[in-house]
Amino acid sequence: MNLNKRSMLVFMASTLLALSLGVDAKTAEPAATAGIAEKLILRGGLKGLQVVDLRALKKNDVLVVQAEIQNTNKKDLRLYYRFRWTDEDGMQVGSGEVWKPLMFLGKQSQFIKGIAPGPKAADFEIEMSAEAR
Amino acid sequence: MKHNRVVLAVASSLLITMLSSCSSSLSQPTERFSRATNYGDSKAVETLTNEFGSTDLQMIAETMVGSLLEDPLLTDRPVMTLGSVKNKTSEYIDTKSIMNSIQTQLVKSRKVKFARSADEMDQGVAELQRQNQSGLYKEQSKAKVGNMTAAQYSLEGEITSIVKQTDKAKDVFYKMTLTVYSVEEGTVEWQEEKEIRKTSKK
User: In which band, very low, low, confident or very high, does the pLDDT at A24 lie, cut at 50, 70 and 90?
Assistant: First the structure.
């Protein structure tokens, strides 16, 4: 094998490796709609996790939020999330939630639910971070 | 020869560009133990061992408080008291600390009032006696004896665990059950469970 052919093989192998690792280029957007995206605080990409549905209502004067999250990836992923609650003036309500880990199998869909720490909470955001299992 | 070098350079730069675009330098919100001493994030996920930890305590308290807050039981801001929490696991767990976190969050929500629990009553009685029997205080400023508000509901619970292990792995399943009893009627008015599974390699 001459040097020219070897170089071409190296080039092709490098490209294939890069393409197989370059997952960001084909992963789904973290939010299914622009309205959902406004409620998310993302730490980097979600690696294929996508919030496909988001709804909020008041129960017993307290804001209750439910989000449906879909793993669009075949690989298992671990999501870390927490809700942030603010009052009508945009001030934080409560002392901050703990980060919660949640496992997603490939292509699995799960609900997450957040309940405001009291009637003062008027708005919310969901902080999210994801990693491979 | 020159052509080969160009091809190799292009391949290398392409590889580096694609690898850097797909990797994230952001860390996850988990506690790291790479330094001898560090101030960590008290809200981060702690996975030092699979024994009961701060993340478990915080998740249990949040789940219980959230479930109570959305329940119509709290509509008229009832008076509750903390009862006992049985620890049926094989570990030492400060169950009073779990209940304190739950009480703190409920009090801050302004949806519940708490009466002194049996454990806290001695100090309250002592203060009442001091005000009324020492002769030190103005009559109108004294707290009157016999005006305490009794609790309508009692908050009680238990925590259990199932542990399975092999030479290579350990699986721990925790279940915390919290119940609100009507003191007068003795009936269960609300109940919630929080389950946590933790696995680790040995």
Answer: very low
- State the DSSP H helix or E strand holding residue B146, giving kind and residue range, or none if neither: none
- Contact indicator for B103, B153 with CB cutoff of 8 Å: no
pLDDT of residue A23: 46
Does B69 sit within 8 Å of A117, measured CB to CB? yes
Task: Please give the Cα distance from B169 to B192 (Å, whole number).
Answer: 30
Kindly state whether A115 is in contact with chain B, defined as any CB-CB distance less than 8 angstroms: yes
Higher pLDDT, A10 or B155: B155
Q: What is the value of ipTM here, to two decimals? A: 0.79
B62 touches chain A (CB under 8 A): yes
Query: Is B19 in CB contact (< 8 Å) with chain A?
Result: yes
Q: How confident is the model over A58-101, as pLDDT tens digits?
A: 999 999 999 999 999 999 999 999 999 999 999 999 989 999 99
Query: Does the pLDDT at position B36 exceed 80?
Result: no
Q: Which two tokens stand for residue B70?
A: 């959305």
Report the CATH number that the domain containing residue A85 is assigned in CATH. Answer: 2.60.40.3230
Query: Was domain B49-115+150-201 assigned CATH 3.30.420.40?
Result: no
* Every domain of chain B and the residues it spans: 49-115+150-201
Backbone angles phi, psi at B170, to 5 degrees: -135, 135
